[in-house]
């Protein structure tokens, strides 16, 4: 039995520890983290999943970013504890987060990740959307929450300033 709830400030360091466990060392040196520096995640979209004894099983966070002059959600990090991987929890967190983003009025979502995994949710490579270097352009993926929201959108991804 897994319970999914919005992340609270008390969850912060436990989620960080899960990300440290699930990602390669030095994850915060990735260029995507420069878009998160000094910017809080989007309130209400970040989720934690706990099993019946309260142990953290998975987490997802979303940040706001600019792409050119437009706004977008940056999905991630998302991680599932190794003891719960392959049970559908990652997919559930992603779907729930995307739905919350849609309800929150966001038009488009992007991420840096593995296309073979994220394509199942409808993510596809974003041509002309430039993450801070060094980022492999093949890993820059997008999903429309409003039809057409990525059409004709290009430019640099920059840190949220609104
Ligand atoms: C990626 C991750 C969040 C997926 O969560 P999960 O709960 O294990 O995934 P689900 O149960 O929803 O889906 C499992 C499916 O995804 C596939 N999958 C998982 N990671 C994948 C990847 N990097 N590339 C391709 N497929 C992947 C599995 O093979 C499985 O495929 P199947 O449905 O055909 O059997 C989790 O494995 C994880 O935390 N990994 C380490 C951190 C990480 O890499 N996160 C971001 C990925 S860019």
Automatic annotation (TrEMBL):
Endpoints of the signal sequence: none
Gene3D superfamilies named in the record: 3.40.630.30
Ranges where the N-acetyltransferase domain occurs: 2-146
Matches recorded under CDD domains: NAT_SF
Record keywords, A-Z: Transferase
UniProt GO MF annotations: acyltransferase activity, transferring groups other than amino-acyl groups
Protein name: N-acetyltransferase
Phylogenetic placement of the source organism: Bacteria, Pseudomonadati, Pseudomonadota, Alphaproteobacteria, Rhodobacterales
């Amino acid at each position: 039995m897994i319970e999914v709830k919005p992340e609270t400030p008390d969850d912060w360091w436990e989620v960080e520890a899960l990300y440290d466990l699930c990602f390669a060392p030095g994850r915060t040196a990735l260029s995507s983290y420069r878009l998160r520096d000094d910017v809080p995640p989007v309130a209400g979209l970040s989720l934690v999943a706990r099993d019946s004894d309260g142990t953290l099983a998975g987490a997802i966070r979303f940040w706001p970013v600019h792409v050119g002059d437009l706004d977008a959600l940056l999905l991630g990090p998302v991680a599932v504890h190794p003891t719960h991987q392959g049970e559908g929890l990652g997919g559930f967190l992603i779907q729930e987060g995307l739905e919350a983003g849609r309800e929150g009025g966001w038009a488009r979502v992007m991420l840096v990740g593995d296309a073979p995994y994220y394509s199942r949710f409808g993510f596809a490579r974003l041509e002309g959307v430039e993450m801070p270097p060094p980022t492999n352009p093949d890993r820059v993926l997008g999903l429309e929450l409003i039809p057409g929201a990525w059409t004709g959108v290009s430019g640099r991804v920059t840190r949220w300033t609104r």
